[in-house]
Amino acid sequence: MRLRSLPILAIAASFITMMPGLALAQKSDDPVLARVDGVEIHQSDLALAEADIGSSLPPVQGDQRRDALLSYLIDVNVLSHTAETSKVDQVPGFPQKLDFARKKVMVETLLDQQAKNSVSDKDIKKFYDDNLKPQTEVHARHILVETEAQAKDVAAKLKGGADFAQLAKEVSKDPGSDGGDLGFITKDQVVPEFGEAAFKLDKGKISDPVKSQFGWHIIKIEDKRERKPPAFDAVKDRIKVVLMQKANEDFVTKARQGAKIERLDAKPDEAKKN
After folding, report:
1. Half-sphere exposure of 255 toward its Cβ, with a 13 Å CA cutoff?
2. pTM of the entire structure?
3. Domain range spanning residue 151?
């Protein structure tokens, strides 16, 4: 793969790796993969390339992905050297772009460290225990009509032996359910009035008319069951990501609160309100 465009962060990263005192520590497990005009590209540099362009690469893995990332790093170093000799750092606007790129890399590094340091294995397990609990589900059907009188009429027909599913097809305002069938639902998936009535019913029972924002419901419970949460090991990585994102949001909010921020673009009337 050859380089098509050169993101400013990639340029900044290449400058940073060439600055004295900022190069990655040399380790025996961090071999040199290539040299460009004497500048070494190490195995660890592949992580920089992966973070920068990984999402845009074709879905290949192994040696093909490694070769694509290394080719990208070679292009970055070749073109950054060309850029230096061409004195692009003297082009108007370049210092501003470089300063912004440096700040962005610093912010990304700060937030990455902050998130990792603020989320422990204990935090992940606590989130799992607090939020992923067994939930009762009911297999519900309903018939939805506009008025209480219509709902009472439906209830009377059902008590007289009418088939619930067939009656739902004939009179229900809910065209999205086949014979009124909602499948298995949890209480928080439906409006409160519906949930309260449905989860009080035993299997096979039919409710009295229930009013909600959508109209009047007659509810039947076909079955009940307990839905077990996924195993901890299956979701712990996703929980960690959620907690890290939340930690970063809180960190940014706290940082903003401690900073003196002046918005100078507000209109006069907006400034008075603030």
Report:
1. 10
2. 0.56
3. 135-227
